[in-house]
Amino acid sequence: MSGVRNLPLIRAATIATIVSGASITNTGIYAPILIGYQVLAGLAWGAGIQVPMIATQGTSKELDLAFETAILLFFQIVGGAFLVGGQTPSTDSVFRLMGLLTYA
């Protein structure tokens, strides 16, 4: 079911990629478009991070509120740390294959 829940994100990303690529190709202007997309992405990212917090606080009992909020924040932060730690070796290997990464 998780794949089905990701379909709106995948569709929106695909459409945005096609539209932005076509507009940059037709106009040749990319800096204002890039800034606009960064603002839009920041708004969407902020909403995506805030929704689990609202859902957690809205459904938990008053006695469990602090504990459940702490658990949510812990997993959001630790999850990001693990993802960065996992992304670094894969990025290094891709750069090495492309010849962009050299060691002294």
TrEMBL record:
For the keyword Transmembrane, the answer is yes
Query: Could you tell me the keywords of this UniProt record?
Result: Membrane, Transmembrane, Transmembrane helix
Chain ranges passing through the membrane: 29-53, 65-85
Please state what the protein is called.
MFS transporter
Record organism: Fusarium solani (Filamentous fungus)
Q: What is the lineage of its organism?
A: Eukaryota, Fungi, Dikarya, Ascomycota, Pezizomycotina
